[in-house]
Amino acid sequence: SRHFAAEERQRSPQLDAQPTSAPGSGYNVAVLGSGGGIGQPLSLLLKLCPRVRDLRLYDVANTAGVAADLSHIATAARVSAHTGGDELPDALYGADLVVIPAGVPRKPGMTRDDLFNINAGIVRTLCEGVARYCPHAWVAIISNPVNSTVPIAAEVFKRAGTFNPAKLFGVTMLDVVRANTFVGEALGVDPATVNVPVIGGHAGVTILPVLSAGTPKLSVPEGQARALMARIQDAGTEVVKAKAGAGSATLSMAYAASRFVEACLRAMAGEVGVVECAFVASSLVTDLPFFASQLRLGPGGIAEFLPLPRLNAMEQGNFESMKAELRSSIQKGVDFMNT
Ligand code: NAD
Ligand code: LMR
């Protein structure tokens, strides 16, 4: 793999003139892995988003057809197709936001960590491209295992001298979407009116829905709260089992990712009060180097880390007992780049 030195970047007049879109004019969004199970419906949802000006579809295969298809939809976003490494620069140059669903999904019996060997290298290569061709872009990583791929991305950017921790996000929005849906069902209310913060990471027990801090208030016996928490933590596996070898969540993930990307673009455009959960480099809220928590987004990325919600005794216990796993998944990503 290639590593791009900061000096190399600084020498490049093309990169010094790196454009970022002016607020209000629409944004350039690149989807890396756009031909896949998540990539296609995510690209569809982004084609419908009025804040997207240029939608760049990148994959190693399957881009031309998806782009031709989407380009017939009567919305303003322009769609372009970019296939294979030689066309990555064009997909990235001038991108304001890059969303990465590239990589292999789970099959029944696998953990997200079982995807590490393949997806770590994919994320590294794509992020090397980001560092080189759109170093100022916001980057939203979907590829699993998120607890490790986000640290890999951070290491790539550090080596390139482009790391801006305010603009690198692991997408954990699907955990929030699931928590809102299941709590909405439990409360008998429209899930669109529910907001449950989910903190920690994005795998098994590292997914920590803070049910006690959700709105509207959920008052259920501890056993029911534990069951809800377990369902949210295992929801990815529920889909993997139901798809029986055909992959993992794609449609709900595309919905969650498009919600997250739209929140980023609203913040970029100067909308105030945009608060979302994401897995980010963070030393302010816990002693872990990366952590998912509620973030206030602004035009430059993360504007504020909201304090962790108050955890009840059960949530605090789960938090303490998952820290070692999360720390070691983070370290695995860092080590991948340093060995
Ligand atoms: P998929 O196999 O359907 O699609 C993956 C796409 O990535 C394919 O089109 C493939 O060609 C492409 N790809 C592979 N290598 C590439 C490379 N080097 N450059 C560009 N594109 C490349 O898989 P999927 O169901 O879309 O899932 C993608 C990833 O998202 C998986 O790792 C999965 O575990 C993860 N995921 C994460 C979440 C989350 O909440 N963060 C949710 C669901 C899935
Ligand atoms: C999910 O939560 O659905 C994703 O992380 C995919 C998976 O492997 O479960």
From TrEMBL:
Complex formation: Homodimer.
Record field: transmembrane: none
GO MF terms held by the record: L-malate dehydrogenase (NAD+) activity
Positions with a binding annotation for substrate: 106, 112, 144, 178
Polar residues composition bias: residue spans: 12-22
Protein name: Malate dehydrogenase
Record lineage: Eukaryota, Viridiplantae, Chlorophyta, core chlorophytes, Trebouxiophyceae
Catalytic reaction(s) noted: (S)-malate + NAD(+) = oxaloacetate + NADH + H(+)
Keywords: Glyoxylate bypass, NAD, Oxidoreductase, Peroxisome, Tricarboxylic acid cycle
Catalytic residues as annotated in Swiss-Prot or TrEMBL: 202 (proton acceptor)
Family listed: Belongs to the LDH/MDH superfamily. MDH type 1 family.
Residues the record lists as binding NAD(+): 33-39, 59, 119, 142-144, 253
The keyword S-adenosyl-L-methionine belongs to this UniProt entry's keyword annotation: no
Top EC group: oxidoreductase
Example GO biological process: malate metabolic process
PANTHER family (alphabetical): MALATE AND LACTATE DEHYDROGENASE, MALATE DEHYDROGENASE 1, PEROXISOMAL
Top-rank lineage group of the source organism: Eukaryota
A Gene Ontology term for the protein's cellular component: peroxisome
